[in-house]
Amino acid sequence: ASARVIPPCYATGQAAGTAASLSLQQSVSPREVDIEHLRKTLQEQGAVV
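The structure corresponding to this sequence follows.
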């Protein structure tokens, strides 16, 4: 059962980490990160979006 939830956890962690990185680079809060830019960055990293 736990094997089913591991991939979504990886994806969530990658998205959260990338959003945190973008927020620091842009000097904004994580809520203010542009979602389209986050999606594009995740796709460039090879993440499933």
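The helical segments are 2-26, 35-44.
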